[in-house]
Recover the amino acids of this structure.
């Protein structure tokens, strides 16, 4: 972690370990499967995906919780902007990609940057080693948990439309009675789900959380696909009856993709249409995004980026389909992700609502509608989300201070991938800070 340094004496957040884990982001540096509350430090044990018992996720949740506080914290101690080289944005992007691809196992990267109204897209490397097939503007990437920010945006829009309220009990939107979705006499509410403070398990079915404890094993992607092969909404509703909510609501950060799936169902109930239709119509109408979707038609299957899991040199299977897909099934192109960055930097009323801090964990780490909100000297208040599936990892950053949006992704997912991206991104952030200082 050369350029990215965390400050000494890391802050803490207390949380109660969930009953299971999740992929698509980061996790605390201790075994979450221990059945008691512990402090975890928002500092870098290692990189990886999110909150969950799995060791890999156990380190990536801090990457999100940490990353927001991460890059929140992340860049808090990057070298001063005044000393950063005043390269232009394209040069900084090339330097970022070159640095990233020097990492073991990484051989392709795509970056989209929106800076003060100007848009830049870079593709570098090759999707398959030795095949000279670089990614391009038509390549569809699996963006993982960055999908959650789309669900948050749709819920923010529903709140502004007066169709939902953050304090609505989730039971209001469910197809049957779930008296188990409460704790200490209080129901699980929408605000608990979008701030990851519902104490819901990471994933359903629960056995997936066990599979993810050994994320880097070569057999893990196949086990995930087997678990979801015949797993749809009906099975989800059955498993939801088995969930136990332990601990106070609205307090402890416990990352949950299962909770995000419930938000997607609530949106279906609110608007009376399938989540995928609601999502694609919204982003097409509001951002001109026509190449972002949960499922891929057969005619577009060859556009999906091949990807690699851990250190396995064999291309792995795509991310399995979740019951609704809101937690991590979106696929998108870099031109569409640039449009998403533009939307997130705009004054669109749903965007403004979705960026509101709903819960503050510490001075420089809050959470909005799924967005992790950090603040530091270099970037000011900024919004971050990591996305990871067994064959790709990426980050989205929204930095209003500089009217800057950055999305980066690589088609490999391992325990060092997130850290490599964070370090490489410093080239872009330092360059922008230097350019701003020179004005």
């Amino acid at each position: 972690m050369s350029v990215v340094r965390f400050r000494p004496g890391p802050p803490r957040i207390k949380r109660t370990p969930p009953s299971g884990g999740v992929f698509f982001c980061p996790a605390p540096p201790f075994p979450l499967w221990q059945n008691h509350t512990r402090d975890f430090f928002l500092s870098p044990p290692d990189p990886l995906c999110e909150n969950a018992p799995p060791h890999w996720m156990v380190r990536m949740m801090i990457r999100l919780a940490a990353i927001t506080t991460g890059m929140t914290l992340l860049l808090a101690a990057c070298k001063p902007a005044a000393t950063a080289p005043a390269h232009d944005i394209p040069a900084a992007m090339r330097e970022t990609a070159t640095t990233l691809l020097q990492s073991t196992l990484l051989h392709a990267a795509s970056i989209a940057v929106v800076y003060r109204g100007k848009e830049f897209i870079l593709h570098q490397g090759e999707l398959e080693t030795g095949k000279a097939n670089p990614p391009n503007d038509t390549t569809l990437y699996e963006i993982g948990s960055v999908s959650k920010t789309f669900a948050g945006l749709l819920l923010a829009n529903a709140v502004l439309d007066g169709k939902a309220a953050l304090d609505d009990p989730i039971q209001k939107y469910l197809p049957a009675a779930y008296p188990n979705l409460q704790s200490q006499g209080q129901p699980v509410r929408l605000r608990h789900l979008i701030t990851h403070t519902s104490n819901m398990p990471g994933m359903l079915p629960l056995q997936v959380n066990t599979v993810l404890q050994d994320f880097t094993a070569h057999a893990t992607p196949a086990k995930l696909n087997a678990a979801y092969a015949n797993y749809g909404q009906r099975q989800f509703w059955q498993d939801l009856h088995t969930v136990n909510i332990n601990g106070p609501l609205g307090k402890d950060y416990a990352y949950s993709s299962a909770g995000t799936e419930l938000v997607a169902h609530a949106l279906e109930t609110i608007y009376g249409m399938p989540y995928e239709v609601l999502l694609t119509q919204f982003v097409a109408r509001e951002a001109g995004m026509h190449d972002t979707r949960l499922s891929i038609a057969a005619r577009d299957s060859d556009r999906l980026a091949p990807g690699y899991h851990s250190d396995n040199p064999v291309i792995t299977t795509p991310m399995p389909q979740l019951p609704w897909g809101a937690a991590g099934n979106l696929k998108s192109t870099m031109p569409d992700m640039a449009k998403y960055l533009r939307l997130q930097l705009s004054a669109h009323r749903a965007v403004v609502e979705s960026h509101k801090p709903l819960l503050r964990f510490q001075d420089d780490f809050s959470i909005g509608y799924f967005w992790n909100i950090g603040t530091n000297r270099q970037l000011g208040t900024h919004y971050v989300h990591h996305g990871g599936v067994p064959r790709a990892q990426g980050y989205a950053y929204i930095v209003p201070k500089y009217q800057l949006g950055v999305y980066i992704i690589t088609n490999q997912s391992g325990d060092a991938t997130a850290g490599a991206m964070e370090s490489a991104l410093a080239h872009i952030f330092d360059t922008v800070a230097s350019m701003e200082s020179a004005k």
